[in-house]
Design brief:
Phosphatase 2c, domain 1
Length: 274
């Protein structure tokens, strides 16, 4: 494998970024720690940062023939060990360690997609949206559009202060975690959270044997493109024209003044050629 380009940028700063990039001899991956929903911090790391760090560590320590079920099992054990060692008083289901990721296995020549990270393969964008997030993004858009039509509020007001639309949907974001790794409902989604992940919720993509370039990205990009430059341009367009992320790119959160973007972001492009 040859790494062509990679980039990581925290929405506030890179130290606080909850994304992690993996690039070793066996695996290439983007791991996106779920945005922390509490004030918990241990060794100056949030739950999202701990989650992505643990998953990345497992990938760095796993031999090339390691299967995805084995990786999930090792991550789950590491999460269990974390809770055994650290006093965590918040609800583990809704506010505990959580991460999504897209992983390339050199040995199996496959992409393993857990959650809503993105991949760019053969001119196609691969992405598995989270149904509850799609609905809540539209709900947030409705709240903002209604507020702007019926009050004197302006978008800039919500970028500098509290965003009432985020406040409105946050309880439902937390409630939707009950569908994590549940395959008996349309709202089910896959995620690293310490519980078994049903195969039906994992997108396994078998790649062509011929050498090719592959791009991976977190959902901090509105849509992954074939290059980092083009992915950044797509993001810049949204930040310029829809900073609250409720029209052009409906999302569960928008840009806060002083931040670099609405979310942490990470991107890596590589060739499968030896």
């Amino acid at each position: 494998m040859k790494i062509i380009e990679q980039f990581l940028r925290g929405k506030i700063n890179d130290t606080l970024c909850e994304d992690t990039i993996v690039a070793n001899d066996n695996f290439v991956a983007i791991i996106d720690g779920v945005t922390s929903k509490s004030d918990f911090s241990y060794q100056r790391k949030t739950t999202g940062k701990w989650a992505s760090t643990i998953v990345a560590q497992v990938l760095d320590e796993s031999p090339e023939e390691t299967t995805l079920p084995e990786i999930i099992s090792r991550v789950n054990q590491q999460f269990t060990d974390f809770y055994d060692d650290v006093a965590f008083t918040d609800d583990i289901v809704s506010k505990g360690l959580q991460a999504v990721g897209v992983i390339y296995s050199k040995h199996f020549n496959e992409l393993w997609m857990i959650g809503d990270c993105q991949a760019y393969v053969n001119g196609k964008v691969l992405f598995t949206p989270k149904k509850s997030d799609e609905i809540l993004s539209q709900m947030r858009s409705l709240v903002l559009t209604t507020n702007f039509q019926t009050t004197d509020a302006k978008p800039a007001d919500y970028m500098t202060g509290e965003d009432p639309s985020r406040t409105e949907i946050l309880p439902w974001i937390l409630k939707a975690t009950n569908f994590a790794n549940e395959d008996g409902t349309d709202f089910g989604y896959s995620i690293f959270n310490g519980t078994p992940i049903p195969e039906s919720l994992i997108n396994v993509v078998k790649l062509d044997d011929e050498p090719q370039e592959i791009g991976l990205a977190s959902d901090g990009y509105p849509q992954i493109q074939s290059t980092l430059k083009d992915s950044e341009a797509t993001l810049a367009d949204v930040i310029q024209n829809d900073p609250l992320c409720y029209q052009q790119f409906p999302s569960t959160k928008g840009l806060h003044e002083g931040n670099k973007s609405f979310d942490d972001r990470s991107y890596i492009r590589f060739s499968t050629e030896e």
